[in-house]
Design brief:
Layout lengths: L3 E4 L3 H12 L4 E5 L22 E4 L6 H11 L3 H8 L1 E2 L4 E4 L1 H14 L3 E5 L10 E4 L7 H11 L4 E7 L2 E3 L9 E2 L9 H4 L2 E6 L1 H13 L20 H6 L27 E7 L6 E4 L8 H8 L10 E3 L2 E7 L2 H4 L12 E3 L9 H19 L12 H12 L28 H21 L2
Parallel strand pairs: 1-2, 1-7, 2-6, 7-16
Antiparallel strand pairs: 3-5, 4-5, 8-15, 9-13, 9-14, 10-11, 11-12, 12-13
Length: about 450
């Protein structure tokens, strides 16, 4: 049997390889790292997480991301299996020890007899064979040019910002305190998964002034600063209004200062554990394009972080993706070259989970083709089906932008079309329908 070739061993490529091999099809997984690195990656491991260590909400009743988690687990997904094994306390979210997680994914792939990991960069798109392109937002220049030449169109781009990471022992815990918002979580560790740094109104106003005045990274010629709203740099949010951050990542609701319980903070900066040892914390929602020197000055204005030591400062990079509604069919194949499937962020999905989910679909679809049959996508009533439906035809091509999974992509429920129904009724109905339909999709294979 001819193998499936997968370009890129990120979350999408790793999941695609796993799914194809589990279906009994041999896989050759091509990865340019570590021979050729990127500015954001630090290792040569598969499924390295570079922006955050969070897979976001794990609530599969009230949250579309949590439903996507459920579907990936139901499909035997490698990414979710390893995320569950290496999870960290994060309230209602699923966060992982990123180094242990990536190492475990790499070990599992290397141990699978049907998967062969081949180092080296792929610079051209082959004209035949069964291929999946899962190169992510940091696709190499040569391969990006090859994709542009095949698609006949320029890839779109936005700028993906990376949040800074702080050494935990440099946080002043006489000022900060541990608490998840609304004490969410079943265990004490979950209920204390975040470190909170409170601000008075004067401190917040001074912070906003410094943020707006800080020196920022300049864009290169020909680049356009078109941001994805779910990953806006904090200074861009501040430019939209002085209160924007206080109603976004710095909102003080659901938190009580353990040191001053009768004093309500005007704003709160949250930090989330980034590794199992609890030695590193990332500043939640603080993606930034400030220059490094400015970052240390501005972030040390945050109460509790005056003497913070940073394991990594924030960064910003270009993120390329296809105009998938015009280029891909619902089997995730390139219309002009159906031997090529695309998966992950390059298709115009946003987020670790969404990228891995598209890898799961691409791997199963490519394996089905290799075994001589066709596999349709899950129903659009499922989280995975709603997402692939959006990127391959449901979105408006002229305004296509990266998309997280959300209930707005799900077809409306017939019984709820009339009248106003609250989330308490609507969301569980969406997720129950999704579970039923996803089980049916798995059973039909």
């Amino acid at each position: 049997m001819e193998p499936i070739h997968i370009i890129g061993a990120g979350l999408a490529g790793s999941e695609a390889a796993w799914q194809a091999a589990r279906a009994g099809v041999p896989v050759i997984l091509h990865e340019m790292r570590p021979a050729k690195g990127t500015f954001a990656h630090k290792t040569g491991d598969c499924a390295e997480m570079v922006c955050s260590n969070s897979f976001r909400s794990d609530d599969d009743v009230m949250n579309a991301v949590g439903q996507l988690h459920w579907e990936m687990r139901a499909a035997g997904g490698l990414i979710m299996t390893m995320a569950d094994r290496h999870k960290l306390p994060a309230g209602g979210a699923l966060a992982v020890d990123r180094e242990a997680f990536s190492a475990a994914v790499t070990q599992a792939l290397r141990a699978e007899p049907l998967i062969r990991i081949v180092p080296g960069e792929i610079t051209e798109l082959p004209g035949d064979g069964n291929w999946i392109v899962a190169t992510g937002p940091l696709t190499s220049d040569s391969l990006a040019q090859a994709i542009r030449s095949v698609t006949g169109t320029d890839a779109l781009a936005f700028f993906d910002a990376i949040a800074p990471i702080v050494h935990a022992d440099t946080i002043d815990m006489t000022v900060a305190w541990e608490q998840s918002r609304y004490d969410k979580g079943e265990t004490e560790a979950e209920q204390k998964a975040y470190i909170n740094c409170p601000m008075t109104r004067d401190q917040y106003e001074a912070f906003i002034d410094a943020l707006l005045a800080a020196e920022k990274t300049e864009f290169h010629e020909g680049e356009t600063a078109g941001y994805f709203d779910g990953c806006l740099p904090i200074e861009v949010m501040a430019e939209r209004g002085r209160e924007t951050l206080r109603h976004g990542p710095m909102k003080p609701v659901g938190l009580t200062n353990a040191h001053k319980p009768d004093e309500k903070a005007y704003a709160v900066v949250q930090l989330r554990r980034d590794n199992a040892l609890g030695t590193l914390y990332n500043i939640v929602g603080f993606q930034t394009k400030m220059k490094y020197g400015a970052q240390t000055q501005v972030f040390r204005m945050i109460p509790g972080l005056e003497n913070a030591s940073f394991a990594r400062l924030g960064g910003i990079h270009r993120n390329s993706f296809l105009n998938s509604p015009t280029l891909l069919d619902d089997r995730m194949r390139l219309r002009q070259r159906p031997n090529l499937r695309f998966a992950g962020q390059v298709t115009g999905v946003e987020g670790y989970v969404e990228s891995a989910a598209m890898g799961l679909l691409a791997g199963r679809m490519a394996a089905a083709q290799a075994l001589g049959h066709d596999l349709p996508p899950p129903a659009p009533t499922t989280a995975m089906g709603a997402l692939v439906n959006h990127i391959t035809g449901g979105a408006e091509a002229k305004t296509f932008q990266p998309m997280n999974v959300n209930f707005g992509l799900f077809p409306p429920l017939d019984e709820m079309r009339s009248g106003r129904k609250g989330r308490k009724d609507r969301y569980p109905a969406y997720t129950q329908r999704a579970k039923d339909d996803f089980r049916a999709w798995l059973a039909a294979q």
